[in-house]
Every structure is written in C-alpha cells, then in structure tokens.
Write a structure and sequence with these properties.
six-stranded mixed beta sheet, six-stranded antiparallel beta sheet, OB fold (Dihydrolipoamide Acetyltransferase, E2P), elongated, alpha+beta, 2 domains
Length: 359
C-alpha cells in the first residue's frame, strides 16, 4: 500500500457570506494518524470534503507528497472516504460491496478476490462475505465500509465520524480496533470526530478546530496538559475543566473570584507584577480540585449533587455564585449539603490571560 504525506496550506471555504474555514494550515506525515477534533459546525466535515474533492475551496492548497491535488477531480486524488453512514449498497453482498470500486477500475478478477480476501481477514469479516448489509451488526457494517476503503490501496484514508452511529460500548471496542488496524497498515489517516475520547485514543496528532479556525495542534498529551486557550481547556477532558473568571490583586500574586482566593506566587514566580489588577481565567481539572483543611483552603463550598459512578464520584459544588466540579475516589467521604474547604496544587493550575495560555 502506497502512503503519502498531506499538506494543507491557508485553506479557506465559505458558503455565501458565512466563512466555514479560515486560513487552515497543517501537515500530516507519512503513516500518521491525524484527528480533527471539534464541536458540530466547526468545519471538520467541510475540511474532509475539500481534501476528497467533494467541495471546492475558496483559497489555499492541498498537496499529497508535494503534488497539488486541489485542482484534480475526486476520482484522481487517490483518497478513500469512509462515511459516517457506512454508505453500503443494500442489494449487494459484503464481497460485492468491497469489490465494487475495483470492478469499476476493471482489475482482474483474481486480483479483486485477493484484495477483498486480505482486507476481510484483516478486519475479521472473512466469514461474512456472502451476507447482505442488513444481516450484519453495526460494528460489522463499519468493518465492511473500512474494508471497501482498504482494498483500494489509497494514499490516504479519510474518516468522517465513522463510530458516531454505534452504541457507547461498541464505540469503545471499535476505537481499539481502529488503533490496531492503523498499527498494522501504517496508513496515512485523516479522521474527524467531536468525541475527545476518540481523539485522545487514536490521534498521534490532534488538530482542535472551533468556528473554522485551528485552536491548537499537537499530541493528545500536550493538548490535555497544556491547553492553548480556555476553549481547548474546556473542550478536551471529561469531565470538563473548571474555569474561574477573576482578577489578580494589585499588590501581590493572589487571584480572587467571589469567595475564592488562590495564592499564585508559586505559579507566577516571576513577572506577576505585569498582570497586577488584570482579569485572569484560572483553570483546574476536577481531579485536581482537592478537599483540604481551613488553613490552606482557597474557598468554602457546599456540596449540591453527588454522582456515584462506581470507580469514582463527581461532586458538584456551589462556591458563592460559582459552580465547580470535583472528581474524587469512590471511597471519599462526602455528603450532600456538607460545607467543605477547597484547595489544590498551584503547579496543576492553568492560567489564561486575554484568551491565551499564560503558563
């Protein structure tokens, strides 16, 4: 299988007066699994359709292995598109669905059977080749759709939220299977999803999109531990990060918001004076929000709701006019209506100033 690098430079797209994508630029290396992550309406599917040639860009370039393809028709771009809806022919068998594109290319029957057989064994559907799509489970149909792409031996695979029609349990299984498949094929993949668990599991590189612009690009670890702005901080992570709006004291490195007070001298060891009196956003993930004693407490909060998930518990807190969420072990002793003292580690805080990461 031939694989290729993908280069997208200054790609833009509008529908009438509405700008869907603005100056999008990123690279996908040979054999890399790149995930486009973002909420509905952020431009993910439009970007994928531009790469496939199903939409025409307003500006910018798309290249495979250094060769521009944005002026080529879809059938000459050497890409395979796996759709959200599977898009299988209901009257055809699994074998005929997988062989369809090869028959259009008039490949020899022996080669067609060889390619379909190899893909079916790889995906563990070789026992289903004579069945029709309606006789298959959702996971098996998705394997057929992936197999139909594999037999084409394209330079790059494009996946449009392929797991969104599956139930939660099967999505988890298919995530692992897709990761294993990529490890076997080492194919170049551009994959879109709104599910950050999918992105974190599959993506060697993640591109976070919002309102048609790239918010951050990097590994799953970098995006989780060092989010570039409040949007990424809240969107990546389950449950969501607590984001607290407040202001830095004018005379010392203390952040205040309602009844909450955090000493940031450790987090802002140098140069905090440049932000004295300024509005800041402080982020802390629920698992890093701790229940402490009175002396080192940031604030007092009332326990409003407790979600018991078995392995751990989500504790919803009311702190003055703010709602905060803490994630605690299942054995933690906490009761509804209880007043507790909140604290945390300064080096676990995420600080943002004017919409950008401060540290």
């Amino acid at each position: 299988m031939t694989i290729a690098s993908l280069s997208i430079q200054n790609l833009s797209k509008s529908f009438g007066a509405a700008k869907v994508l603005e100056e999008i630029s990123f690279e996908v290396a040979d054999g890399e699994f790149c995930v486009l992550l973002g909420p509905s309406g952020c431009g993910k599917t439009t970007l994928l359709r531009l790469v496939a040639g199903l939409e025409e860009a307003a500006g910018g370039t798309i290249s495979l292995d250094g060769q521009r393809i944005d002026d080529l028709p879809p059938q000459k771009r050497d890409v395979a598109f796996v759709f959200q809806s599977y898009a299988l022919y209901p009257h055809m068998s699994v074998f005929e669905n997988m062989a369809f594109s090869l028959r259009l290319r008039r490949l020899p029957e022996r080669e067609i059977r060889q390619r379909v057989g190899e893909a079916a064994r790889l995906l563990e559907i070789d026992g289903q080749l004579e069945r029709k799509p309606q006789e298959l489970s959702g996971g098996q149909r998705q394997r057929v759709a992936v197999g139909r792409a594999i037999v084409r031996q394209p330079k790059i695979f494009l996946f449009d939220e392929p797991l969104s029609n599956l139930d939660a349990s099967l999505r988890g299984t298919m995530r692992v299977e897709l990761a294993r498949l990529h490890r076997k094929l080492r194919a170049t993949i551009l994959y879109i999803t709104h599910d950050q668990a999918e992105a974190m599991t599959l993506g060697e590189k993640i591109v976070v999109l919002h309102e048609g612009r790239i918010q951050q690009l990097g590994s799953s670890s970098a995006i989780y531990h060092r989010p570039a702005n409040p949007f990424v901080a809240r969107f990546v992570g389950s449950p969501q990060m607590n984001l607290i709006e407040g202001r830095l004291d004018e005379k010392r490195a203390v952040f205040r918001s309602g009844g909450l007070e955090i000493d940031l001298s450790g987090a802002l060891s140098e140069g905090w004076e440049g932000y004295a009196g300024e509005a800041l956003t402080v982020g802390i993930r629920p698992e890093e929000l701790l229940f402490g004693g009175r002396d080192d407490a940031w604030a007092r909060a009332e326990v409003e709701i407790i979600e018991d998930l078995g392995s751990d518990r989500f504790v919803h807190l009311r702190c003055a006019d703010m709602e905060l969420l803490a994630r605690v072990p299942a054995h933690a002793t906490v009761n509804r209506g209880e007043i507790i003292h909140l604290t945390g580690k300064p080096d676990r805080l995420h600080l943002f100033y004017q919409g950008k990461r401060l540290r």
